[in-house]
Design a protein that fits this description.
The chain is of the alpha/beta class. It is about 30% helix and about 25% strand. It has 9 helices and 15 strands. The longest helix is centred in the C-terminal third of the chain and has 17 residues.
Amino acid sequence: MAGGASRKTPETGEPALRDSESPKDVPATGGPPRFSILVCIDGTDASYRALRHAVRIGSGTDADLTLLYVRPIDQDLRTGGMQISVVRENILDWGLELPGGTALRRGRELLVELGWLNKDWQTEFAHVDVQGDPLGDNAIVYSSPKGRSVVLRLLIAPSVAAGILDEAKLGGFDLLVVGMPEGEKGSGPGYVSRKIARRVAREHTGAVLVTRAREEGDGHLVCIANYEGSIVAAQKHAEIANRCASPIFLLSVARTVEFIPDSRKTVATAKERIEKAGIPVSGTTALVGEPVPLIVDQGRPHAVIVVSRFQKRTGWRQIFSNSIAFKVLKRAENSVMITR
């Protein structure tokens, strides 16, 4: 649990099973695993842009969406004298100004508007008590007749970043999507600031898409380094880009001219493997120069820049603050996906 927060079922007092660990969420034997996306929602326009990105990537019938609002533990949460059980069950159906309820409700309405969620889907409410917080963890699960699900989750954690990282890790999501705020002042206990978005991208061990306001562009620019892990990461991302019918462009940058043959070989190998899987590659490029400015410049015409990185650890923290991936994330004007 995030930061060791204590969660117990009200019936037994025993540690509760998280929604992400529920047996009903395990794919049925004999069927392919469902593609799962976790989207951070905080009520800002940036978070709903992130949700639109997630819907585009998840197009199809085999993707599940979880909208997550994280609220720091608050022992002084006020419920206006209402019974807390009534408040829990009506977080999203009533116009209650509880932290997170309004933001998640707006996310649900956007999904209905986009045709991703129908109001006649089966609905299930889940709750887990959190020691020291009267509201606790709450989730509403919408299930379609075809097996697709949308989860609206209000999570309690010591901090917003810790809650996002905890949920992303325990839920085993294929993709985490977080919006980068630009020019808008957020507020509220669940606000995902630029600092939090960068921390999530830095420390999460899976694929992260950090979305920006500029949404136009031609496809995904996938940057590949001269090592096997980067090629494998490019293959995995090609499957994600193919889900939303986005053209794929491959780029490898050599720091000096003597390494340009290696870069050309790298993009050629990646292209061959990706196309062998039945996914077309729209273009390949190998350039010489400093990687970060070249990647940012080459990425401008594209909707998403995709960069991979080594996984290095010091204790529990992912270390890549000085890496190419993090520098591209800081400098790019468009959305950036970091793969592992």
